[in-house]
Structure formats: C-alpha cells, structure tokens
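Troubleshooting log. The previous run stalled partway through. Resubmitting the same two chains, unchanged.
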Amino acid sequence: AQSVSQHNHHVILSEAASLELGCNYSYGGTVNLFWYVQYPGQHLQLLLKYFSGDPLVKGIKGFEAEFIKSKFSFNLRKPSVQWSDTAEYFCAVNDVRGTDKLIFGTGTRLQVFP
Amino acid sequence: NAGVMQNPRHLVRRRGQEARLRCSPMKGHSHVYWYRQLPEEGLKFMVYLQKENIIDESGMPKERFSAEFPKEGPSILRIQQVVRGDSAAYFCASSPGTGRRDQLYFGPGTRLTVT
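Second attempt completed without errors. Output:
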C-alpha cells in the first residue's frame, strides 16, 4: 500500500530562515504529488502539485518543491520564511492508475517567529 | 474553497449513539471524499463517492461506518454506535469529477467528540 512519510513533525524557524520539509513516498509506480497547507483556523488548501514535466515545481507564496524520482522524494522549500507561513503542511500522493484519492502524510507543523 | 460546507462543525455524542456528518460540495462538484484525522496523525482516506455511487471505500472501517451521496442533498457520513476511538476531525473534500485530483477543495471539518 502507498504511504507518505514526513519526518519533520515540528519545525521552528526565525523569519528569513530557509525552509526545507521532507516528504518521501513508498509507491514505485507513476504518481502525482501535492503539498497542502492549513493555516490556523482555515481550510486545507493546495500549495503546489507535480504531475509531469519539470521536476522543480513552483507554487504560491514563494514555495517550491523538487520531485526526485530516484529518491521517492518531494521536498518542499522556501528560501526565506515569513511569520505568516506559520501553518501545518501536508504532503500527499496519488497513484495515477488508481482513483483520485490522495494519501496524506502526517503533517509538519511550522512555527515562524519574528 | 469556502464553498465546501460541513455541518455540524462540532458534534458531541455519548458512546453507543449515532453520529451523522454532512458535507455539501462546492457548486458544480459531483465527487466527494471523506478523510479522518486522529490526534497527532495525518488525514486518513476513508471513502470516495460520486452521486449515488461509491467509487472507492478502501479506507472505511468494515463495521459501523457508512457513507452516501444521494442525487439530491449533501453527502452523509454515518457512524453507528460510536466509541471513544471515533473521536477525531472528519474532513470532506469535493472535486468537479473524475481525473480532477488537482482540484480538491476541502471543507472546515467536523470535530466529533465521543464521551
């Protein structure tokens, strides 16, 4: 069965620090990959996605992620975080041969201090 | 994505009672997904439905849980004879149709507490 691992459960950074959140998945077939974000008190929303093509994907608010097929990874990055990036971040994977359901990781809670 | 509505937002049930969670998808969306988030865990897929049809129920517990999405009205997740372990946040998402997996919009969730 597919699974998604997010090894960083809680990350604390100061503003302007660089961010990298790890995401690894266990499925060997063709996948679609996603990062979702949940700001405090808000709905889960899509940050960025990878379907095919350029493995470096740019999303909203300056976030990007790189798909490395050989490492089964899809790490999220941001060069300089802001206090407003404080949120919970979820990586998700979808098996393109299956249904449209997404399998989520356990999430990473990011706290950014001014 | 405020268009996906879930109610109630908070639900308290005693052990053995039934819980009914409702999800109204965004306008124009015909597919609904239910996820459960237990404390300190990620979102676990439960079931994927389109109107009047269950597409994928591979994440649904075998007993006490059922889901429907009728032709008219919201999708309902029903939990019979609730137990303390059912306490969790239940999230619904909707999409426009098959293959639109990049257009999932989530609702605010229903927090179920079983006492």
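Takeaways: The longest strand of chain B covers residues 43-50. Residues 30 and 53 of chain B are 11 Å apart (CA to CA).
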